[in-house]
Amino acid sequence: MKQLRYVIAGLGLNLHSRDNEKLKNYLTSFSPFCVNEFSKDTIHLFDFFTGLTLDVNGEPIHSFDWEGIKCEIFMNDNHYLVKFYLSQDEYYIIKSDKQWKIINSNIQTIDERSSFCITFFLMFAYCFASIPYNTLVIHASVVIHNEKAMVFQGKSGTGKSTHSQLWLKNVKGTYLLNDDNPVIRIDDSGILYVYGSPWSGKTPCYLNKKFEVAAFVRLSQAKENKLQKLSLGKSFASLLPSCSNMIWDKRVHETICSTISKVCIYNRCWTLQCLADKDAVMKSKSIIDQLDDIDNDVTNQKTEIESLEI
Predict the structure, then answer these.
(1) Are residues 125 and 140 in the same domain?
(2) Amino acid 213: pLDDT
(3) What distance in Å separates the CA atoms of residue 100 and residue 108, rounded to the nearest whole number?
(4) What's the structural domain count of the chain?
(5) Cα–Cα distance between 43 and 38 in angstroms, integer?
(6) Mapping DSSP to helix (H, G, I), strand (E, B) and coil, where does residue 152 land?
(7) Please, what is the end-to-end C-alpha distance for the chain in angstroms?
(8) Of all helices (H) and strands (E), which one includes residue 81?
(9) CB 115 within 8 A of CB 27
(10) For the chain, which residues score pLDDT lower than 50?
(11) In whole angstroms, what is the distance from residue 238 CA to residue 152 CA?
């Protein structure tokens, strides 16, 4: 069976279906990430198969909503199983090994509804298949200015997208990289990058680009604008809630926490209590103007840590 191949943040996915051309046409947000072949630098992440017969078995361990759709997760000693409900009695299923290398689905027909479900399944699998590679899928909105990325975090409704739009309006040369689920990855040379992804919420922004992270900024609504630098410990506490995680799986949770700890060493985390105004933008923009000083602090911190390890 011919495969569809996609590369997201240097990690490759293979999709297998009876009608790959039809599937490709429906997965429009994945188009910028489509490749004919993986390069020698691409890490093969997983294979995703449609058209199988699957039974629900395992212990129910978690349920949540995604885009208003009910989802349930089951687990046993050998695999995960995720149910995606279209109605109370109708659902799609994926079944994966514990390493998220082989993902099978019971999706038989490729259409608008099933492709919406496949988009979710691929994001879910990507989140947890990618964790061995210093990778995090984070709930955030990202703008690019002077080839540097500002990653805005916060609880739903706190104004991540609004703050990004204010940047686009008030800071010349700024554009949006992703508005919901960008990918954070530390590459082999030790550079902290944020990548665009096929998952951008309600904002159609699917750029296959990467940029060095200038800052992670956790937003909260307030009566005045106040920017504050975070310590390493508070940086960890700020990043963890924004990352896709499975706290019930010790291996997954510990690996994600380890990657977050590595990210914290880059000294890139801030909080911004803010109004939805231009002054709030100027406060967060000031971080980019301080990057040289921040990088010097990072170098000093790494030297201190290395000396302690010796």
Answers:
(1) no
(2) 98
(3) 21
(4) 2
(5) 8
(6) strand
(7) 52
(8) strand 79-85
(9) yes
(10) 303, 305-310
(11) 11
d(CA 118, CA 122): 6
Look at phi and psi of residue 127 and say left if phi exceeds 0, alpha if psi is from -120 to 50, else beta: alpha
Count of beta carbons in the 10 Å neighbourhood of residue 236: 16
Q: What is the CATH number of the domain that holds 261?
A: 3.90.228.20
Q: Residue 77: how many CB atoms within 10 A of its CB?
A: 6
Buried residues in 35-45 as b, exposed as e (16+ CB within 10 A): eeebeeeeeeb
pLDDT at 68 (0 to 100): 86
Same domain, 112 and 169: no
**Residue at a domain's end among 129, 149, 164:** 129
- Show the CA angle centred on residue 175, arms to residues 183 and 241, nearest 5°: 35
Report the pLDDT value the prediction gives residue 308, as an integer from 0 to 100.
44
Distance CA 214, CA 98 (A): 34
Which pair of tokens denotes residue 1? 């069976």
CA distance linking residue 183 with residue 196, whole number of Å: 7
Residues with Cβ within 8 Å of residue 244, at least 6 apart in sequence:
127, 128, 136, 137, 138, 139, 181
* End residue of a domain, out of 84, 111, 129: 129
Say whether both 298 and 164 belong to one domain: yes
260-271 pLDDT tens trace: 999 999 999 999
How many other C-beta atoms are found inside a 10 Å radius of the C-beta of residue 189? 5
What pLDDT was estimated at residue 97? 95
Say yes or no: 125 and 142 in one domain: no
Q: Could you give the count of Cα atoms lying within 13 Å of 167 in the half-sphere of its Cβ?
A: 27
Strands (E), the chain: 3-8, 11-16, 34-35, 43-49, 59-66, 69-75, 79-85, 91-97, 102-105, 135-137, 141-145, 148-153, 175-178, 183-186, 192-195, 210-221, 226-229, 269-274
Kindly report the pTM of this predicted structure.
Answer: 0.92
Angle, CA 201 vertex, CA 198 and CA 204 arms, to 5°: 65
Position 310 scores a pLDDT of 40
- Is residue 303 located within the same domain as residue 188? yes
Q: Domain span at residue 67?
A: 3-129
